[in-house]
Amino acid sequence: MRHLSILGRIVTGHNQRRLASTLRNPEVNSAFGRVIVSGIQPTGIPHLGNYLGALKNWVELQNKAGVNDKLYFFIASFHALTVPQNASQLYRDRRQLLATLIAIGLDPKKCTIFLQDHVPEHAELGWYLMCMSPFGRLERMTTWKSKIATLQNSGNIDHVNESQLQLGLFAYPVLQAADILMYQATHVPVGDDQTQHLELTRDLAIHFNRAVKSRFFHLPEQIITPSKRILSLRNPDQKMSKSAPDANSRILITDTPEQIRSKIKKAVTDSIPILSYDTVNRPAVSNLLQILAAFDGGILRKALASSEDPDQLQNPSFVAQLLNDRMGGSGASLKSALTDTIVEELRPIQEEYHRLENEAGYLDSIAQLGCDKARAQCQETMTEVRKLLGLHN
């Protein structure tokens, strides 16, 4: 793929000279670095699906970032308002998630961590992009269609009932595009289920650039998150979710070792005596194997022979074979290894989280630092956007 990230840079002053040099010599593109943007909604303490599907990857992106890379990770509080919220609970959820992001290893000196609602420019750019967004395109978004299908299947409506469908939910993919484009993102870490949203973002960037006759916004590329969707421990037909009525269906990052052990013990498996990774015929067992592999094997590293590659522990099929050969190969051995691995990895995270809970002043300072860093870039972007739209000289 060509270096689309370079084409959208603001072609003014020093950037113009850098762009001209880059086009003459594509090999110097790496000197600009990547701009990586991602967000997560504040819906309470994250569970393993959130951690393995997104947050753990954020830390890895941060730790492997080049000196010229810029990373923006935000708590998507505006997006949380697309469904009804309890105000006091939302406030707590925002604080808890901020503490979680620091506890898992995100470093405010290496990346920008901020609350979306502290940066009003997101909403402003979202409005400008909404004015350019085709209504029919948003109607075809998967999230919107699934919301209508859910209401229809519940028997609440036979057709679209305007009192049950909110504009915020309909238009939030445009705000999501604004979140990304605001920072001139070159890369966005998302799962396969978010590909449609990134395609909309790219299309809106192209539409804006054509409308203002300027290659202003980048066309961000997708970074596929390495971990697949983590499923419910109690129902492998559904993804792990905080809204599921059965608390045993999910493991929260703050769960105690006793709670983790109890939930893993109650996780569904099957009656086949040996382990294998088969997502079609053995979804429950495969889900547990996938979780174990996503933790990089944990205690299973001790079972490796010296000649074996430890990177294989990220392969669920290899993990299944290792358990079969050296740890009994039963559902019980899988659950035991999984419990010990989760407890071991979450222990330092939980210790840091509980320390941060009592450091309100420190969390406030982190939020303010992130806000200041984010708004500095936002104001630069929005000054140019307003000029291009004729709202400013």
From TrEMBL:
EC nos: 6.1.1.2
Main location: mitochondrion
SUPFAM superfamilies reported for this sequence: Nucleotidylyl transferase
GO BP term, example: mitochondrial tryptophanyl-tRNA aminoacylation
Localization (cell): Mitochondrion matrix
Top EC group: ligase
Keywords per UniProt: Aminoacyl-tRNA synthetase, ATP-binding, Ligase, Nucleotide-binding, Protein biosynthesis
Keyword Protein biosynthesis: yes
GO molecular function terms noted in the UniProt entry: ATP binding; tryptophan-tRNA ligase activity
Keyword Translocase appears in the UniProt entry: no
Signal peptide: none
This protein's GO CC annotations: mitochondrial matrix
PANTHER family documented for this protein: TRYPTOPHAN--TRNA LIGASE, MITOCHONDRIAL (PTHR43766:SF1)
Similarity remark: Belongs to the class-I aminoacyl-tRNA synthetase family.
UniProt protein name: Tryptophan--tRNA ligase, mitochondrial
